[in-house]
């Protein structure tokens, strides 16, 4: 799997409480094409699929479940974050090292904000172990044994 560091949300990030991904992806400001009066309008949800790889790199303990949300905002501090996609609750029994979280490859049409992050939402007791690596990738490897 090839992972570009500029598209990396979490690199072995320990999840011991509700938390945002370590990294935020900045999609940049839309520019103004030559000959046009105004800047382009961003819409992340149009076009090609966006494969997202989320892998458990250390087995979790204690928690009941984990939910992962994709959030966007026009402010890098995410003061008014909008959740645009989310996983169902993933039970503790599934959160073992090597588990790849199934996630939709498509963001909804109409996603117009500049910054993108993941948000990890735990249910139950705070875990003392459990790490995740997550990134936008060219494609996900799906031939698991």
Structural overview:
By secondary structure, the chain is mostly beta strands. The chain contains no helices and nine strands. β5 (63-73) and β6 (82-86) form a beta hairpin.
Short description:
0% of the residues lie in helices and 36% in strands. It is an all-beta fold and 145 residues long.
| Class from secondary-structure proportions | mainly beta
User: Runs with pLDDT <50, length 5+?
Assistant: none
Q: In this structure, how is the largest beta sheet organized?
A: 6 strands, antiparallel
What is the distance, rounded to the nearest whole angstrom, between the alpha carbons of the first and last residues? 16 Å
Q: Rough shape?
A: elongated
Taking Cα atoms only, what radius of gyration do you get, to the nearest Å?
Answer: 16 Å
Fraction in beta strands: 35-45%
Say how many strands there are. 9
Residue share in helix: under 10%
Return the string of H and E elements. Answer: EEEEEEEEE
Number of discrete helical segments? 0
Please state the average pLDDT score.
89
């Amino acid at each position: 799997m090839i992972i570009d560091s500029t598209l990396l949300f979490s690199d072995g990030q320990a999840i011991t409480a509700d938390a945002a991904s370590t990294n935020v992806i900045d999609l940049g400001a839309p520019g103004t094409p030559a000959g046009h009066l105004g800047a382009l309008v961003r819409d992340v949800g149009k076009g090609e699929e966006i494969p997202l790889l989320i892998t458990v790199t250390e087995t979790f303990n204690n928690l009941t479940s984990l939910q992962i949300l994709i959030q966007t905002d026009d402010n890098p501090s995410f003061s008014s974050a909008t959740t645009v996609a989310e996983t169902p609750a993933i039970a503790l029994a599934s959160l073992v090292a090597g588990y790849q979280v199934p996630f939709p490859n498509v963001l909804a049409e109409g996603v117009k904000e500049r910054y993108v992050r993941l948000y990890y939402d735990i249910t139950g007791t705070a875990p003392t172990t459990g790490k995740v690596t997550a990134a936008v990738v060219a494609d996900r490897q799906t031939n698991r044994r």
